[in-house]
TrEMBL record:
Source superkingdom: Bacteria
Name assigned to this protein: 4-vinyl reductase 4VR domain-containing protein
Native source organism of the sequence: Pandoraea thiooxydans
Pfam families: V4R (PF02830)
InterPro entries per UniProt: NO_sig/Golgi_transp_ligand-bd, V4R
Domain 4-vinyl reductase 4VR: 99-162
SMART domains: V4R
Amino acid sequence: MSAIVQRLVFDVAAGEIRDGQRRYVLIRPDVLMGALHELDGATRQRVLEALAASTERNGGRSVHAYASIDRGTALLDTICDTAAGLGWGRWHMSLGADRLDLTVHNSPFAHGHGKAARAVCAPIAGMLGSVAAMLFEGPVRVEETGCAAHVAGPVCRFVARAQSGASLPTQS
């Protein structure tokens, strides 16, 4: 069982779900992503960009909490396990010297959106940005290179690249 699933506290009296100080909310993917269908194309794109930025910033607090325990590939294992435990699909990350690749099977965002003209898994891109920025100790650029909602494939693919020649810090 995923470690986060074991840590989650469902406090029905308070009406909240928590992992320590981090509060979560359950929402069906079709409800969240269906809201995008209510928007014109330009607004939809801005909302996706905002979701990515918000997830990178706010989800980054979870990444920092996990990194206080795990670093390097152990952190990646924790992030992948947590993603699955929270219903964000099955993640596999591959770390290179200046890039972090992510493959997601069963993205709830692609599934909840349905067929799309472009990539829609912005929250996953945001979380990947937070993880990669921590690992590379600097700014990164994230791209969703294949979205199951766009290409009607079984997986979504992402790449995060260190910017300005940054790469993994050497361990001393």
